[in-house]
Amino acid sequence: MSSFVDEAQLNVRGGDGGAGCVSMRREAHVPKGGPDGGDGGNGGDIWLVADRNVSSLLAFRDHPHRRATNGVHGQGKKKHGHGGDDLIVKVPEGTVVYDQDGRVLADLVNAGDRWLAASGGRGGRGNTRFLSNKRRAPTFAEQGEVGEQRWLNLELKLMADVALVGFPNVGKSTLISRISAAKPKIADYPFTTLEPNLGVVRMDEGDEMVVADIPGLIEGASEGRGLGHQFLRHVERARALCLLIDLAPTAPHSPEEQERILLAELENYRPELLYRPRVVLGSRSDLSEDEIPTDIITFSAVTGDGINRAVGAMATAVRQARSEEPEPEPFVVYRPQPVGLTVERGDDASFIVSGRAAERAVALSDLTNLEALAYVQERLKSLGVDKALAKAGAKEGDVVHIGKLSFEYAED
Ligand SMILES: Nc1nc2c(ncn2[C@@H]2O[C@H](COP(=O)(O)OP(=O)(O)OP(=O)(O)O)[C@@H](O)[C@H]2O)c(=O)[nH]1
Ligand SMILES: [Mg+2]
User: Of 53, 200, 262, 391, which is least surrounded by CB within 10 A?
Assistant: First the structure.
């Protein structure tokens, strides 16, 4: 089945971490209480999850921003802030996620596949955590880390939920143009449609289904007549089938004959097609002059009569098909986190240190507080930053940058 490509941009932002609290215990009869500032909560993460009931990326077209909630700040009396809620963003099965440079980050093929799109910021630790023998009354706490933020490009490669199967000129393209945003060519002669058109059709409760308008089939299609195989190939990967029977008097066969021929062609091509959930609809009912067989739902795409019923019947077949499909094992896509420590030379002979832990230590700290600054230096040393700088050839007085922190290297 030719795939239908839909594209959208999405901006995701994890929640910010809450700040740690600086607080000292105050109690009657205890003149010098120790620190009791609680930690800030972590910001919420954003996950993209493939969902069978979402059929397009339309939801992102006008509203491309998604944000998870922030962590709450810590408080005195060792009260920790609540973490922010994770945000689940539903995308259609078959959504491929790219970064701004066109690299594939995730491929969410089956319902339940999930991918961490943006991590929430870590909550800052309260001053209680910086208590040590040397530091009896820490006057600093960590700030919350800002949530990860980025633009993603989403691309959808999807298959149809239901294929419209019928003789040429029965009104397949007219129907899809009426129930979706698809704009296929419509004309009063056979074989107007030569390539499938896909349209997203709204069902109830916000669910959507993808309908494929395919070229008309004729008797002998399974033996290759009228480009038969090429067209039948399009039917193959649809979850459900919708047979359109022309009720107009100009139809080349009676309604019963049309249904019989279409089923025979499908069976001849791939017998298993007969086991797909299917619905039979009578089209162009406004032109009909004869008694209509009562067992089929009829509609007119021109007058709109019976259209809702027709869509409802298609939706029922699609729901049945979706429920009969085995649930695939959900698959979690992890993006490897860059780890370790790297030291690079800047243009101006300075040194640039990067690495998650080191950058984090700097980002979380209030660098205007001398005690906090002393703590960061200790922390960087324990992470091996000093050694890495020495190894990279840093000399006394060279400028070093780590995130927002810049300082002069001192050999000790
Ligand atoms: N009166 C009436 N005419 C219709 C109706 N639906 C479609 N038509 C007309 O029937 C003709 C064929 O419609 P199409 O939608 O192109 O038919 P199709 O099944 O897509 O045809 P192919 O692409 O050739 O297979 C057009 O002239 C339509 O305007 C209907 O409900 N009532
Ligand atoms: Mg057509």
Answer: 391
